[in-house]
Amino acid sequence: MIGEAAAGAEAVRAVRDLTPDVVVMDLNMPGMSGVEATRQVVAFAPLTRVLVLTISDQDSDVLDAILAGACGYLLKDSSIQELMAGIRAASVGESLISPNIAAKVLQRVRSTSSVSAIAETIRAELSDREIQVLKLIANGKDNAHIAAELHISPKTVKNHISNILMKLQIDNRIQAAVYAVKSGIV
Questions:
Q1: Using CA atoms, how far apart are residues 130 and 128, in angstroms rounded to an integer?
Q2: Given 60, 77, 108, which residue is the final one in a domain?
Q3: Are residues 61 and 121 in the same domain?
Q4: Integer angstrom CA distances of residue 163 from 58, 131, 143, 169, 170
Q5: CB 31 within 8 A of CB 5
Q6: Phi, psi (5° rounding) for residue 26?
Q7: CB burial readout 18-43, b (16+ within 10 A) else e
Q8: I need a labelling partner for 75 at 20 to 30 A (CA). Which of 18, 60, 84, 102 fits?
């Protein structure tokens, strides 16, 4: 089912009514912001994946959207192929972020991290293999690349990622990457 909304509150209502698999969300909408709309969508429809498509490459917008639960972040100047790849990735539980945005996010996270506490949490909660997978996620590798690099099946990679998300109590790959960078393990 496909729907369209011009404002944040309208987008939230549309998600309630249509229960889509993927929402393509702008950040700059009248009334409720895209970040707040994303937060609300993720809270009541955790299986609906939110892909942000916006003109803003501001660090704060990117981080706010990711922390609100967005599984991907693309700029409006992305190609149609990149947009379709982002929607496909979101639909199967993966994440896509524009490379130039990823670099800015990683730099910002590195400069504001409380390294030791996060690193201790990661080492206490995750197995060595899960830490290897987390490092590869943070380096932008998709499941196929991770499987090839670690000589394991893509299904095993998916299991490791599910375990990582559960153990660290985070929602998606992007948040896992941010967490890994904050920890200093990357």
A1: 5
A2: 108
A3: no
A4: 31, 11, 14, 10, 10
A5: no
A6: -90, 155
A7: eebebbbbbbebeebbbbbbbbbbbe
A8: 18
Q: What is the pLDDT of residues 67-86, one digit of tens each?
A: 889 988 888 888 899 899 99
Q: Which domain holds residue 122?
A: 114-183
The answer to whether residues 36 and 56 belong to one domain is: yes
Residue 143 one-letter amino acid: N
- State the DSSP H helix or E strand holding residue 13, giving kind and residue range, or none if neither: helix 8-18
Q: Which of 76, 108, 140 finishes a domain?
A: 108
Sort strands 72-75 and 49-54 into parallel, antiparallel or unpaired: parallel
Instruction: Note whether 89 and 143 are same-domain residues.
Output: no
User: In whole angstroms, how far apart are CA 7 and each of 13, 25, 48, 89?
Assistant: 10, 10, 18, 25
Strand partners, 75: 54
34 part of a folded domain: yes
- Average pLDDT value over all residues in the chain: 86
Co-location of 92 and 161 in the same domain = no
Q: What is the CATH number of the domain that holds 144?
A: 1.10.10.10
pTM of the model: 0.61
